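=== Given protein ===
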Amino acid sequence: MKNLDQRNQIIEYSLKLNSTNLSPLRSGNISLKVKEDEKEGYLITPSGKKYESLKPEDIVFMDFNEKEENKVSTNKPSSEWRFHRDIYLNKKDAQAIVHAHSPHATAVSSHGKTIPPFHYMIALAGGEDIKCAEYATFGTEELSKNVIKALENRSACLMSNHGQVAFGKNLEDAFELAQEIENICHQYTIALKLGQPKILSFEEMKRVLDKAKNYKKR
């Protein structure tokens, strides 16, 4: 089977979505940029299957010119294949993507809120705040466009009334960033219970962003 190691890695991290409570049952999806039969594309989790039942052959390959409705396969790709494809096409650093319906990120997203710089760790997503993509029905081209807009100069964003998405240079990095986003959202919801938190200045976040470039290199 082609890309067996990558398929198994997707299954490994899909199971972690459940075990870490980052995304329960069938929710969320994971993909990995690959080449198959000389075609550039990505492997993505299938639609509607519980992660605990996944097998390597269930993982779906999509090339960048392919649409789900034209896919001839036993398994259908995740309904969110569009924004996975568009992230890879628009973000040269994206090699892996994790989309999760994590509890606190989803709660914050239900308010359509951009998360302001109440904590410097927001810089891990690449900007001075974490944007929230405008709502659109799941699986649609409109949602994909909204996600790409919210990801401008960033590697993660919230998705209004939906959840979050993060990308990285590999699955480990993308998954870790998704965990960071969930933790930040959890902290933000706690902070709001005490009132409006103090917001770090633009100048301070610029300093933090410069430092954050080397954060993961240590």
